[in-house]
Request: fold
Amino acid sequence: MLGDLTASVRAAGLKMGYYYSLYEWFNPLWLSDKKRYVTEHMIPQFKDLVTKYKPSIIFSDGEWELSDTAWKSQELLAWLLNESLVAKEVVVNDRWGNNTRGKNTGATYTTSEYGSGMDASVIWEESQGIAHSYGYNRHEKLEDYKSSHDLIFNACRYCVKGW
Reply:
């Protein structure tokens, strides 16, 4: 499925990117042994994803549980940005450990949520849900969602200098 989607995106002349959560909330190995989870599951899975599908962008998330050292992020990013098949093209955000947001730790851009911490001197992206959550939330009502006007306004205002 991921291969088909990636092929379709590239056939349309677009770059393909992936959201990658460093941890899996209910993975038994994560719940029992975080160190083994990182070395035996997360790193091999990440390298497999990159090798098979060759993404142009990786939005890393779920970093808040561990430091970049515990996630082995420096080694993983060194492999990605120097040795992987996408080393010359791929860009990554700054979410690689609970100590990395907003810092230059190998990231090529900074991710802000809801307008927090954006700095015009760095390359950044803005991340927001269209309601209170990023995913489906059965407790949200229709009026919790931003209108199409508000969505367009937010997209435009972040692109204007001095917003």
